[in-house]
């Protein structure tokens, strides 16, 4: 069995994941790139002001971000409160050519920066395909439950 998943482990894995599905308030989940800020236990997203996600974040709203990264062997359902923020320093920090492809620069009035303050996360980490296949084969032969990785529930203090 694996040790408990720590916050440090969670942030380390999340930093290597590039995208997930974000749902803010009543909006439908949409693909989004996140930018992790472990020090403040927050995720940031750059979206367009007129989208359902951008509109939902105009007021603080419950949010869920789902990540599934086979490459990083991480799956997580992350909960928090999302809100639109005006933070030029954070926008400068996270702005990149991919975000720039959607807008006429970071000063475009349609740019919306969303901050999601994390409250909790359910996380699954695996050791990769070879270990997974070995554990499945072993379980079929021995009848024992496979050890396919770690699963934990994290709570983030406010």
Question: Would you give an account of this structure?
Answer:
The protein has 158 residues and is α+β, with helices and mostly antiparallel strands. 25% of the residues lie in helices and 39% in strands. The protein has a single domain (7-155), classed as Pnp Oxidase, Chain A, CATH 2.30.110.10.
Summed up:
This protein is of the alpha+beta class and 158 residues long.
Structural class: alpha+beta
Proportion of residues in extended strands: 35-45%
Alpha-carbon distance between the two ends: 30 Å
Q: What would CATH call the homologous superfamily?
A: Electron Transport, Fmn-binding Protein, Chain A
* H and E order: HEEEEHEEHHEHE
Tally of individual domains:
1
The CATH architecture category equals Roll
Would you tell me the overall average pLDDT?
87
CATH topology: Pnp Oxidase, Chain A
Total strands: 8
Assembly state here?
single chain
How helical, in percent, are the residues?
10-25%
- The top-level CATH class is Mainly Beta
Largest sheet: 8 strands, antiparallel
Poorly predicted regions are 129-139
Shape estimate? elongated
Count of helical segments?
Answer: 5
Radius of gyration in whole Å, from Cα?
18 Å
Domain General stress protein FMN-binding split barrel: 7-147
Organism: Wenxinia marina DSM 24838
Pfam family, one: Pyrid_ox_like
Protein name: Putative stress protein (General stress protein 26)
